Amino acid sequence: MSTKRKTTIQDLADYANVSIGTVDRVIHKRGKVSPDKQKKVEEAIKKLNFNPNLLARTLALGQQFVICSLFPGTTHPNSYWSLPKRGVTEAVVDYRDYGLECHAMEYSLFDELSFVEKADAIIDMNPDGVILAPLFEKESLLFIKKLDEKKIPYVFIDAVIPNQKNLSYIGPDLKGSGHVAGKLMSSMLNSFDDILILNFVKGLENSHINIIEKGFREFFSSSKDLGNGKINSVTVPSIEEADITRELTKYYIKNPETKGVFVTNSRAHIIAKYHAMHELPIKLIGFDMLEANILEMKNGNIDFLISQRPISQGAMAVKTLFEFFVQKKTPAKIRHVPLDIIIKENIDYHIKLQEPVNDKL
Amino acid sequence: MSTKRKTTIQDLADYANVSIGTVDRVIHKRGKVSPDKQKKVEEAIKKLNFNPNLLARTLALGQQFVICSLFPGTTHPNSYWSLPKRGVTEAVVDYRDYGLECHAMEYSLFDELSFVEKADAIIDMNPDGVILAPLFEKESLLFIKKLDEKKIPYVFIDAVIPNQKNLSYIGPDLKGSGHVAGKLMSSMLNSFDDILILNFVKGLENSHINIIEKGFREFFSSSKDLGNGKINSVTVPSIEEADITRELTKYYIKNPETKGVFVTNSRAHIIAKYHAMHELPIKLIGFDMLEANILEMKNGNIDFLISQRPISQGAMAVKTLFEFFVQKKTPAKIRHVPLDIIIKENIDYHIKLQEPVNDKL
DNA sequence: TAAAAAAATGTGTGCCTACACATATTAATG
DNA sequence: CATTAATATGTGTAGGCACACATTTTTTTA
Predict the structure, then answer these.
(1) What's the CATH fold of domain B174-307?
(2) What digits encode the pLDDT tens for the residues A208-245?
(3) SS3 A167
(4) If exposure means fewest CB atoms within 10 Å of the residue's CB, which of A191, B49, B141, B159 is most exposed?
């Protein structure tokens, strides 16, 4: 099956009776072209509908882009942060032939110093772009100040520090995720049922949590028909299962009428197991499709999970930087990922999508 | 920022003390290489971690791929089928430089003959691959028989004819979508509430609808605690608003206790308007993020929409064919898209994702 | 008006691969 | 051992583009 060839610069040159060198100067606005030929070439570009071949261009330029990612380390093999990381890795493969390379750096969520160390290492590496999950706000600010100085573009992922010069933020709308959780909770409960909001503290995640909780409460307060029960929030200053269990027991003994729990991070599975063990018919909503959460959802111990497409986030971040480098595309400053509502009945399709792609060659 | 260059075939040649011609023969298993040099080159590939540059390869081959899509025509500007079409178009742009070209064909959902005509046109065109929405089963079977004869690979999208030689099916799990709808409905209603399943007929969609309805009923029958109310189904043999309204009125007068409606296609917006007009507090679940459905959801007249990522479907189909052509990747035969649960609170994020990408260059 | 300077335009090479073709090496045959 | 056949190996070119450099044309200056 043959079809019309694509227009090349040689075609333009022929049309305008000039050499490809002149065409090239026009295309790249390098000047040194007489006005009449300039016009003629521009006419050719329009008339022949010229689109430069990105492949050939890339090949000719032989450019090399190095980006660094700085994410929290994956404590468990299937923890949340392995997912954005996966998205980055997969996207980098797509752009490998275009000269893109990525160095993945990790810091510990329990150690600000590790963040600083890795950040410095990135600065030393002098990359072309950075993908950053700015969970330590203070340290992140110091880091991006250096990036700004070196004019290295950076993309925030998953979390955001407002009013910075980041190229883009790719992640959830935290308040919106609270709204979604509120709606889902209200659809399962009666308006007078009591609800518990459960926060965990670790590092600087606090500020985020507050916004999620705010959104959740906002949903109920925006309607007089809803949320006539109590909505309490408890913050457990630990992510240890023992600590959580203890706090939970304390709370439930005091508040036996609790009908729904909203866990503002990815650890709903711990609560789910607790509910199952104590045969508590309490509705449960949490975040993220971790292995453990998937299991508890399938066991019927989690009713809704809200997922923020962590893999897509990673892939989008890479794509954003690449398009900025190669095509000078300026992305939207804020790009909220869809908040996927996961239930037992549709979770398998989402898992399938998470699975690595098939064999090569 | 400089970094180690990527390994080229020249590097391999140097390492193995042969010419690039020999390297090429090894890479492409063209034979005519002495065993010792063969081994040496293979060693070089491993040691230098060689990955052929897809860009240079594509450029060198100068290959041209032509695919055709055969979808139902878009009756309204924002109808369902404009979305997969959008996905195809956008993906084709991504692969344009790789020599991919797509001819979009459309048939009328009310005219089998138009399908046959376009199908024949595609056969005449002798494309390298086809993306097909096989909504007319009988005619589709004739079409793919011809495709099989000509060894033209094809991908089913949105709908599937079982047991064919299609490269892949990309679309929803229909029964699963019924399960999801069932779960969502049950979460909103009491177990003894009456439910109406609403089907519309147009063309051969019937068979699909039956499966969706089956899934919906299956969900309720699988639990003794649920679905103790009546679950009736009505099939309206038209998609005209007037006809639908009449049938609905007839039904509601006979069944005033109806508490929930499940519309098995994308026309929930019509029912939504009816409910609003008559002030009926009936829960409503439908499919697909059409403009009209989005509006009614925002108005509060639709509770849940189930979306099957129509844009992704189109994009995935293109990607599948391309990877099959270029990288000989064999896709999974069935790829069910995630069933997105859309509510008023998360619809905006999904709309944003649907919007066309930003400016170029 | 010739020479020098400036501006405009053209040419050639590299990027990496695939493939046709040319050449070199080895094996087989009389 | 010379000759042919078979096999192995090397070379050249195309593909579209960017860029450095060479060459031509025009303008300026003495």
Answers:
(1) Rossmann fold (3.40.50)
(2) 668 999 999 999 999 777 767 899 999 998 878 899 99
(3) coil
(4) B49
Token digits of residue B183 = 């779960």
CB A266 within 8 A of CB A293: yes
**pLDDT tens digit string along B8-25?**
999 999 999 999 999 999
Residue B173 has which token pair?
A: 């799990």
Q: How far is CA B197 from CA A227, A358, B233, B234, B295, in A?
A: 31, 39, 4, 6, 22
Q: Residue ranges of the domains in chain A? A: 9-52, 65-172+310-337, 174-307
CA A11 to CA A17: how far, in whole Å? 10
* Under 8 Å between Cβ of B265 and B228: no
Q: Which of B55, B186, B191, B226 to mutate to test the interface with A (most CBs of A within 10 A)?
A: B55
Smallest Cα distance from B216 to chain A, Å: 11
Q: Which amino acid is located at B287 in the chain?
A: F
Q: Which CATH superfamily does the domain covering B65-172+310-337 fall into? A: Response regulator (3.40.50.2300)
pLDDT, tens digit, 9 for 90 and up, residues B54-87:
889 888 988 889 999 999 998 777 788 999 999 9
% pLDDT > 70, chain B: 94
DSSP assigned state of A80 = T
Q: Give the ranges where B255-354 is alpha helix by DSSP (H).
A: 268-277, 291-298, 310-327, 347-354
CATH topology for B9-52? 434 Repressor (Amino-terminal Domain) (1.10.260)
Residues 6+ away with beta carbon under 8 Å from A287:
A177, A263, A264, A265, A266, A268, A305, A306, A307, A308
Determine contact, residues B278/B301, Cβ cutoff 8 Å.
no
Do A346 and B180 lie within an 8 Å CB cutoff? yes
- As to burial, measured by CB atoms within 10 angstroms (0-12 exposed, 13-18 middle, 19+ buried), residue A142 is middle
Which parts of chain A have pLDDT scores under 70?
1-4, 202-209, 227, 353-361
CA–CA distance, A187 with A177 (Å, rounded to integer):
15
* List of B residues 48-87 with CB within 7 A of strand C: 50, 52-53, 56-57, 59-61
The protein residue nearest D11 (Cα–C1') is: B21
Percent of chain A's residues with pLDDT above 90: 73
Structure tokens at A118: 């890795």
Query: How far A220 CA sits from the closest chain B CA (Å)?
Result: 13
What pLDDT was estimated at residue B76?
Answer: 75
